[in-house]
From TrEMBL:
The lineage of its organism: Eukaryota, Metazoa, Chordata, Craniata, Vertebrata. This is G protein-activated inward rectifier potassium channel 1. Gene3D superfamilies: 1.10.287.70, G protein-activated inward rectifier potassium channel 1. The chain crosses the membrane at residues 51-75, 87-105, 125-149. It is found in: Membrane. The gene is Kcnj3_1. It catalyses: K(+)(in) = K(+)(out). The keyword RNA-binding does not apply. Belongs to the inward rectifier-type potassium channel (TC 1.A.2.1) family. KCNJ3 subfamily.
Length: 468
């Protein structure tokens, strides 16, 4: 099909690096919920805001505690008597604000130069020292823990998980398949790695409701376990397009008019840290190549397998039908021959065979004299077979062309021959049965005629009374 004009850059729901293009607005009074989970809020902030809050918190805490020591020294008059050797101050050698700030830093950092120290003549200083120790431990645990969690976030591990730049649609194992490739750049494994795919596409319900970002699940092997990955080398993830797939009616021509986005989510546990990691990417309709296949990247070397990541994103064209799976199935049904008459003939043949089997059973139950009169055991079976063949011929003549039907309707054909054969077969058993009679009965029968002339008078009278 002719190539369509290139489209403008469409807004994506998920970027190639996995970032979701969603902003929450008009929260109103719901912003207070962020303060209720302050630790997670600080971890989710960007690095520049984390560093700013880290420095600001320590600076404010240090200035506040230093000012508290300076206030105690000012209220006790230690600032005016700092150089009096006979006076015992609350904190030795604290005579201005810089010296109070240095005392706080030495106490907080447990450096202890020994020049400034608390004396036993200051109970308020002892209480402030205890408060300083507790507050300092809380601030250190909160801020240092926040920075540690942010530095060890599994998002950075996702940077070493690769996805192919394009997805491809081609035939695999005789089925139209959507494929893309994933890889792990590190030697450490992803434990219990699992992959999922979502199709984001706008649609309208029968009730008229418009769904701008309707999410549909793409089967990448849930029933077979193919979604559980052993991600040691690059793997090609496949989605078979069948009647249950959302791409059942997708063809090469409709690719130019469709608008959809395939979101790929890879989850697993980082082997080194034990934390759960998630990597995401997406493919729009412009990034799905019809009739392409990925280049192989694994080669066997001496004692190991080598992965060539220079061919990780490379594809090449392969012969692929441009029709959708639905169109291919419809063309296959139109090209297949009709088999309904053959099925009907087979049913009639089965019924005729069942009738013959039933007659065989009845024949075996007849008395021995009647079985001898029939002469041959297969006599009724032949008649039924001949009658069944004639009915089959009559049925099949309705399916023949008109010329053949005219030829078969000419008089003197097989129907007359069939009638003569049946009369012969009817006469043959009777003649054989008379020949098998004893000599006295053969004489009485007179060569096959009526035996009433040789009967006794009583029997002839009884017969005449019965017939009259």
């Amino acid at each position: 099909p002719p190539r369509a004009a290139p489209r403008g850059k469409r807004q994506r729901f998920v970027d190639k690096n996995g970032r979701c293009n969603v902003q929450h607005g008009n929260l109103g009074g719901e912003t207070s919920r962020y303060l209720s989970d302050l630790f997670t809020t600080l971890v989710d902030l960007k690095w520049r805001w984390n560093l700013f809050i880290f420095i600001l918190t320590y600076t404010v805490a240090w200035l506040f505690m230093a000012s508290m020591w300076w206030v105690i020294a000012y209220m006790r008059g230690d600032l005016n008597k700092a150089h009096d050797d006979s006076y015992t101050p609350c904190v030795a050698n604290v005579y201005n604000f810089p010296s109070a700030f240095l005392f706080f830093i030495e106490t907080e950092a447990t450096i202890g130069y020994g020049y400034r120290y608390i004396t036993d003549k200051c109970p308020e200083g002892i209480i402030l020292f205890l408060f300083q120790s507790i507050l300092g431990s809380i601030v250190d645990a909160f801020l240092i823990g926040c920075m540690f969690i942010k530095m060890s976030q599994p998002k950075k591990r996702a940077e070493t998980l690769m996805f192919s730049e394009h997805a491809a649609i081609s035939m695999r194992d005789g089925k139209l398949t959507l494929m893309f490739r994933v890889g792990n750049l590190r030697n450490s494994h992803m434990v219990s790695a699992q992959i999922r795919c979502k199709l984001l596409k706008s649609r309208q319900t029968p009730e008229g409701e418009f769904l701008p970002l309707d999410q549909l699940e793409l089967d990448v092997g849930f029933s077979t376990g193919a979604d559980q990955l052993f991600l040691v080398s690059p793997l090609t993830i496949c989605h078979v397009i069948d009647a249950k797939s959302p791409f059942y009616e997708l063809s090469q021509r409709s690719m130019h008019t469709e608008q959809f986005e395939i979101v790929v989510i890879l989850e697993g546990i980082v082997e080194t840290t034990g934390m759960t990691c998630q990597a995401r990417t997406s493919y729009t309709e412009d990034e799905v190549l019809w009739g392409h296949r990925f280049f192989p990247v694994i080669s066997l070397e001496e004692g190991f397998f080598k992965v060539d990541y220079s061919q990780f994103h490379a594809t090449f064209e392969v012969p692929t039908p441009p029709y959708s799976v639905k169109e291919q199935e419809e063309m296959l049904l139109m090209s297949s021959p009709l088999i309904a008459p053959a099925v009907g003939n087979s049913k009639e043949r089965n019924s005729s065979v069942e009738c013959l089997d039933g007659l065989d059973e009845v024949g075996t139950k007849l008395p021995s004299k009647l079985q001898k009169i029939t002469g041959r055991d297969d006599f009724p079976k032949k008649l039924l077979r001949m009658s069944s063949t004639t009915s089959e011929k009559a049925y099949s003549m309705g399916d023949l062309p008109m010329k053949l039907q005219r030829i078969s309707s000419v008089p003197g054909n097989s129907d007359d021959k069939l009638g003569s054969k049946t009369t012969k077969m009817m006469s043959d058993p009777m003649s054989q049965s008379v020949a098998e009679l004893p000599p006295k009965l053969q004489k009485l029968s007179g060569g096959g005629g009526r035996m009433e002339g040789h009967l006794p008078p009583k029997l002839r009278k009884m017969n005449s009374d019965r017939f009259t």
